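Before relying on records like the one below, remember that each one covers exactly one chain. Contacts with other chains, cofactors or solvent are not represented anywhere in the record.
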Amino acid sequence: MAENKATRHEIVTSNPDVDVRFYYSKDEGSYVSPHWHNSLEIVYVIKGKVTLNLPCNVKVTAHDGEFFIANPREIHSVLSEKNEALVLQIPRKFYDRYVPSMHLRKFAVDMSPANEVDRTRLERLKKIFMDMHIVYDIRPEGYLLRFNSLLYELLFLLIHSYSEKILPKDFDRENKYFNRLKDIMDFIDDHHAEPVSTSEVAQEFGYNADYLARFFKKYTNCTLTDYIYMVRVGYVHRDLLNTDLAVAEILERHGCTNHSLFMRYFKEQWGCTPKEHRNRYGAE
């Protein structure tokens, strides 16, 4: 997640021995609020259920043996039920070396292909993913040779079978919307401890409040009020686990003056109160 930030920009760091981030994840259930990153992200659900929320009210749900893709600079949120998954994040600096036009491609995978050729191709994609996991987990001598060969094969297959080219003008239009949202999310993050509201954000950026509310909802799948409290929940979560401050002081520090409303958002994300969360996950 973002360093010293909530979740608007996820900082992706590569594994020490490879040029991508690749790891096994076991999650009891969580929610990651709207954010973005410069990496191509693929989540393969081994067991359980994970839902990716994309702009324009698009939702992609992956169950056992399925996966989804989050494109670079695509604002998205993730709702997870109990699951085990493999996560691969390919940074832009990696794929730019080999495919400079990657920013003009959109990736997506149909988990229910209609014909045998596409079904065979999909199973090949899944097998590559699992083989990457096996070789990286066991790490036999020369494992990096095998891992990287699988990574290149995976990326080649994605480019040629699971991507569509977009026109430069369409990319420019999407980039304009993205930059608007990024600025709004940055502003909310910087001012989350203040009594910020939709009308105040709209005034800051010279928008009509109703237009801003519709625009934000369309491209993030949540309201501005939802997002403001998600950011606050992120900061409170961090301080609960990393400071000895009293819960009331932490809430005040991050602008949570409406305790009942904040508690609703916190419980929706973590399933417990801040005090219970600290007792469960805080440092010994």
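Confidence is low (pLDDT under 50) at residues 1-8.
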